[in-house]
Write a structure and sequence with these properties.
Blueprint: E1 2-7, E2 12-17, H1 23-40, E3 43-49, H2 59-72, E4 76-82, H3 86-95, E5 102-106, H4 111-119
Parallel strand pairs: 2-3, 3-4, 4-5
Antiparallel strand pairs: 1-2
């Protein structure tokens, strides 16, 4: 399950995985993101607020996650990963080579800094 919150007049989307990710989570995110992208051409930022990564409910959820990334990574300007988990701290450096967005890790204590960075123009 993924909770989501909008910041900065619907230009920054925060997502918080609460349990194993499900296929329907990505359909719900698409329904939130599509109208913003239609109106503005892109999303200024995506904040992944992940104290831990719960994994996927099953293979279909993993495929939905990959499809979501494939379809949206060029339409998101910046991605901030907020987590104290060591593995998630390295994730931005790995995915930065595969996505069009600028990706940066932030420790949980720097949540507000991550949100400010996403809201900055550029």
């Amino acid at each position: 399950m993924i909770e989501h919150y909008w910041h900065c007049d619907h230009s920054v989307l925060e997502i918080c995985p609460l349990g194993p990710l499900e296929e329907t989570d990505f359909q719900a995110l698409e329904a939130q993101v599509d109208p913003v992208i239609s109106e503005h051409g892109r999303l200024a930022g995506l904040l992944i607020n992940a104290g831990h990564f719960p994994g996927w409910e099953g293979f279909a959820a993993l495929i939905s996650h990959c499809v979501f990334l494939r379809d949206y990574h060029k339409r998101i300007h910046k991605i901030a990963v907020v987590s104290d988990h060591t593995l998630l701290g390295f994730m931005p450096r790995l995915v930065d080579h595969f996505v069009g967005a600028e990706v940066r890790p932030f420790p949980a204590a720097d949540y507000q800094q991550a949100l400010s960075w996403l809201a900055e123009p550029g």
